[in-house]
Amino acid sequence: MAGTTSAGPSDDPAAVLQTLIDSTSSYYLTQSEQNLMMMPASPALWTVEEGEALFHEPRGPNEVSLEGCDFGKGPGVLEGAYVELPRYFEDTGKVMDLGNRLIHCMKTLQGFADDDPAITRIHGSNTDHMRLQAYIAAQSNGMNWNPPMDHPLEKALRDAGEVLFYRRSGPFDFNCAACHGDEGKQIRASVLPYANNPKEWTKAISWPSFRVGHDNLRSSQHRVSECYWQMRYPEIIPGSDLSIALISFWTDLARGQPAILPDLKR
């Protein structure tokens, strides 16, 4: 299961998913015929186009675009940047995911204030955040997850995420592994992805993704928050070290598998 399935750079998320389906017998990947039919015309693709325009538009008090933002591969370089996040950024001294890095650049480059709606509104297809995240992430579609583990803080966050993934707590003594630690588990009619099957797990962590049931594009941070709510844990702070630790660990589990960006989920 640990072998890689490189689809290579692609403009078509549906084609990346089909490459995975053709290489494995996973029922998780094929459980929704309707979603597979919808993927080529996913509403998320409109959000990607909106994000492209927003990325290049001079905005904020400083009237500059985000083309000077470094997402890990140099200012303005987006291809392959998302699949190498979260990562350590020397200019902040922190491990950051895409959402945190966007906020940093919108504040330092464009001059947005902490309480500006462009900064505070982070969930939903109609927010600047999701438009920008969709566009930036899509530039890594079909590329293999490859989060760096060179800096001690990158390793520390990844290891902390592993502890959180398996630690049982909360009012129902729950953990992430309760849903994703064994093969073939279901919640009602939905088959759950198995964390130790990278070809399933890459789809599970391919966010941003259009949630059909929400009629909205959702981010990795939203997924973490929703999982914590479902386990009845205390509310997680978006962009916190805890959230980034979990994202660091789950991305590392999918290492070497192609990202489906943007994906479409139930």
TrEMBL record:
Q: Which reaction does it catalyse?
A: S-sulfanyl-L-cysteinyl-[SoxY protein] + thiosulfate + 2 Fe(III)-[cytochrome c] = S-(2-sulfodisulfanyl)-L-cysteinyl-[SoxY protein] + 2 Fe(II)-[cytochrome c] + 2 H(+); L-cysteinyl-[SoxY protein] + thiosulfate + 2 Fe(III)-[cytochrome c] = S-sulfosulfanyl-L-cysteinyl-[SoxY protein] + 2 Fe(II)-[cytochrome c] + 2 H(+)
Q: Which UniProt keywords apply?
A: Electron transport, Heme, Iron, Metal-binding, Periplasm, Signal, Transferase, Transport
Q: Where is the Cytochrome c domain?
A: 50-144
- List the subcellular locations: Periplasm
Annotated EC: 2.8.5.2
Q: Name one Pfam family in it.
A: SoxA-TsdA_cyt-c
Q: Could you say which protein family the record assigns here?
A: Belongs to the SoxA family.
Q: How does it assemble?
A: Heterodimer of SoxA and SoxX.
Q: Which NCBIfam families match?
A: thiosulf_SoxA
Q: What is this protein called?
A: L-cysteine S-thiosulfotransferase subunit SoxA
**Native species of this protein?**
Thioalkalicoccus limnaeus
The gene from which this protein is expressed is soxA
